Structure formats: structure tokens, C-alpha cells
Amino acid sequence: MLIEKDIKKILNQLAGGDAIDVPFEGSDIRVRFLDDASKLSLTTSIYYGGNYIPSSVRRCLSHKSPFSHPSIRTYLSIDEQQYQIYLNYLGHPDVLNQRQLKDLIEEFAQLAEQWRLYLDEHDKNDLVHVRVK
What we know:
5 strands; alpha+beta; 28% strand; Type III secretion chaperone SycE; Yope Regulator, Chain: A
């Protein structure tokens, strides 16, 4: 759970034009403003493939999200060079107060964890089982 001083620190760094990495419940969430502070961006890695993203994981990305998250809209992106998949949020910071930012980050982190578990489960479908005699 984020506490008030964490949120104040985030808002102060954002006000200075800096991006901030927020460690929260297993996620390192990058929070920043884009387009002259007209948009708020949250990004976190939800899958790291080492040197390969399996086809079963890629298939998961081509389907509708299996998670219900009506309060925030997110999208996925792939970094092919780093073999990573990211969960992203892009919204308007117009009326964002401390409480709303806290709730947004917490919900985003919860959704990221759901995606991690989901993709890790599908990742197992591409494992090659070898018998050792």
C-alpha cells in the first residue's frame, strides 16, 4: 500500500518534469507526464522472455484482455530487442489528486500482477518436456 508521503514524493518529482520509478508490490512502475504534462503515463514490465517470447505468450496478446478493469484502460506493448512485454496506461492528469493517483497506481499494479501470472501460465505451454533416464 502506498502511503501519503510516497504520493507526495511522486507528485513533486512529476511536477519537476521528471519520471519516477515506483516500486510497488512486485512491480517497478514508471510514472511520468507526456506531451507537456497533458497525459499521465504508467508503464511496467509484465513478462521477460530471456531471449525469446514463446508463441503461446504471443497468442495471449492477440486476444481480448481476460481481466475486468473498467476504471482504467490499459494496453500492452512488446520490446522485441529486449524480449519484454509491458503493461501501459495513458490518461489525463487534469483532476488527479493524491487519492486518485494512489488508487490508480495500486489498481495498475494489481492488473500487472494478474497479467504476469496469466502470461507465466501460458509460457509453460511452450516448455519442452525431456525425460531423464
